[in-house]
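Suppose you are handed only these lines of text.
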Amino acid sequence: MDKMAVSVMETGEDAFRKIFKLYKRRNPSPDFSDVIDFSKCVTNDKIVPVKLDPAAVSDGDAAKVGLRPVKEWKAFNLQGYPGFLFISNPFLRGSQLFWVRQCLKTYPQKPNVCNLDMHMSHTDTQDIWAKSVPNLSSSVGKRVPRTLLDRLRWVTLGYHYNWNSKTYSANHYTPFPTELHLLSYQIATACGFPGFIAEAGILNYYKSDSSLGIHVDDAELDHSHPLLSFSFGQSAIFLLGGIHRQESPTAMYMHSGDLMIMSGQSRLFYHAMPRIVPTHQKVEALETDQCGWHSGWQGSTVMEQVSEEDWTVCARYIHSSRVNMTVRQVLGQGQSFPETFSLPRHAQEHQEDNEDHMKRRCRSDSFNIKNT
Ligand code: OGA
Ligand code: MN
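From them, the structure of the protein bound to manganese (II) ion can be written out as follows.
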């Protein structure tokens, strides 16, 4: 037995978990000086700037989904993490707001699935936004019940991820939002993955004390396609490890608008989000007037104007929260789900009762740490 295995057995703790706990710690607060900040444009022997093919996506096609011309994107590889690409906020000024509004107002709507559906009827979760907006607290000192929007923890799109069985299935699919498919398609194309099909999405909604435990995203049936991750709102620390839990992870900041593309070997690397880091500088998604991108772009777009009222609600939410969207292609070209036996009804119900599981996944690290 090697030395590493002995020390893991002795302490019950692997290198990843140790670092996870370090960054999650509140008192005393950890030292953040080793956390890579791609927005600061420092390069060292670990951070490798990447030139993407500026002709892969036309400036017009990029602008249509709210992205800057590809030639302006600041993209980086990380030494030791093959297939991992970090793009420091490629969004046009003012366009993040549209995507934040989609995450808060549009994507939680039926037929998409959210954590509240696990213990509430569909009529009760029908319009989370409309039910929440009138009750947003404005009176100081008065105790108001938390709104549905405050209680939103996750939304799934397309093939709906089942948190219990950790699988997707052919018979639990609803149409993937076309504009989010197009955004993902353009990004994948720019990064050298033409023909990407967005088939599943997981949106996570984080409060300032939330974290996401150590895990691998391997439920997709085909791993040759990249996984795209979008961050909006408050910043966070992301830990990227390796194929084994024993490998010590690298820490980096994810700021609003940042993208990560996990492909190749990195597609199946362990990762986690131990901590939200309050953004002291203004969050770009909020600072511009809501129609900033309109003025510079006359062509067609998938993005609609965000109303002043929606902007106010999104701004307030994002002021203390973070939203992460991951977009995945589940099936390879020509691939389909294997035939499955249909379960007896009571077993299906049991399978769908996954609220508990998600609570653990989102609120604490205990589930993933003990079970991965
Ligand atoms: C995920 C994930 C990380 C994040 O949803 O699978 O790894 O930054 N999210 O929230
Ligand atoms: Mn993940």
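What can we learn from it? The chain has 13 helices and 13 strands. The CA atoms of residues 81 and 280 lie 30 Å apart.
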